[in-house]
Amino acid sequence: MEAQSEDTPKPSLPLILISAYDLASANALISEITNNSIKNTKETSKESHGCVWQIVNKYYQVDVELYPVADSDTLPPSLTERLEAHIIYITDDEEGDLGAERAEQRWARAGAAVGAAGVRLAVAAGARAAPALAAWARRRRYEPVALREAAGDDDARADACGAERARAALHAHTWRGLRRIDAPARSFLPLDPSGATSSDEEYEGEWDGEEGGEWEVEVERAEAFAEALGALGGARAAAARLPAAERRRRAERLVRAFCRALGADLHAL
Questions:
Q1: Which stretches does UniProt call biased (Acidic residues) (predicted)?
Q2: Segments in the chain below pLDDT 70
Q3: Distances in whole angstroms, Cα of residue 62 to Cα of each of 22, 79, 203, 230, 242
Q4: Alpha-carbon dihedral 91, 129, 74, 6, rounded to 10 degrees
Q5: CB 3.0 to 4.6 Å from 216: which of 96, 212, 226, 242, for a disulfide?
């Protein structure tokens, strides 16, 4: 069997669904949001394709698949299991009341899986989202983003608007499969469910090395919390096939990881 390339998209990658009038519009939005930094593309059908985007921040990185779908396409049911973000794109030709109508249609076409998406954006191509689209977004719990909106003098953050805002929302999500870029000098015990115990030893010597400053401790606790949060999705799927006793053991392990990240002693609670 031929070895799979490291850059080849894998079926288990978390999915960002981009719903637009046509594939050209969806792919144009992908270029804007990713700043043309996709890793690879693959053919999924004659009409559409997915591409891999590596999201990288200061501490973590993750590969996600961006999947554009046009109004004339049918979303493969298998993709909904991996859906973690949904972006509805409204072009300049769809502004006004038509934009809200098209957004509703694309929301319905995406199906029930959208309800579990951690990031939901309604992106308008212009300098501001039309009132009808903004009202629709509030009703369906999407964040309205105007792609061409310019940052004002009172915007304290660079990611407050436009493509930067859409990119920041995706960066902030806790994706399944997050990977640490580099291991800290002092780290928490790894999340290895197979080694779960109830021993007090796991609460002693949590840090490898000498105690650092308070700021470093807080940063590492925040990182450990994000790591534990990112493990939830995979832990739930894996535990579904295990005996009840093993599920409890793994759940206890995960709870201890959260407690350590918060600086709490589980036995003292």
A1: 199-213
A2: 1-11, 40-49, 151-159, 183-224, 226-241, 260-269
A3: 27, 18, 29, 11, 27
A4: 90
A5: 212
The DSSP element (H or E) to which 256 belongs, if any, is helix 244-261
Long-range contacts of 246-251 (CB under 8 A, 24+ apart): 249/193, 249/196, 250/193, 250/196
Name, in order, each residue with C-beta under 8 angstroms of 48's C-beta and a sequence gap of 6 or more.
23, 67, 68, 69, 70, 73
Residue 118 to residue 232: CA distance in whole angstroms:
14
CATH topology for 15-172 is Rossmann fold (3.40.50)
User: What single-letter amino acid sits at 203?
Assistant: Y
Per-residue tokens: 31: 């270029």
**106, HSE (Cβ side, Cα atoms, 13 Å):** 31
Pairing state between β 119-124 and 38-43: unpaired
Q: What is the pLDDT of residue 183?
A: 54
Nearest by Cα to 171 from 251, 58, 74: 58
Which one, of 157, 146, 112, 265, lies nearest residue 202 by Cα?
265
Pairing between β-strand 60-70 and β-strand 179-180 as defined by DSSP bridges: antiparallel
CA 44 to chain centre: 22
The CA–CA distances, whole Å, from 249 to 7, 190, 195, 255 equal 35, 15, 9, 10
| Phi, psi dihedrals of residue 236, rounded to the nearest 5° | -65, -45
Q: How far apart are CA 230 and CA 146, in angstroms?
A: 29
Which letter does DSSP use for residue 234 in this model? H
Whole-model pTM over 0.85: no
Helices 214-239 and 244-261 meet at what angle, rounded to 10? Answer: 160
Domain spans in the chain, listed from the N-terminal domain onward: 15-172, 184-268
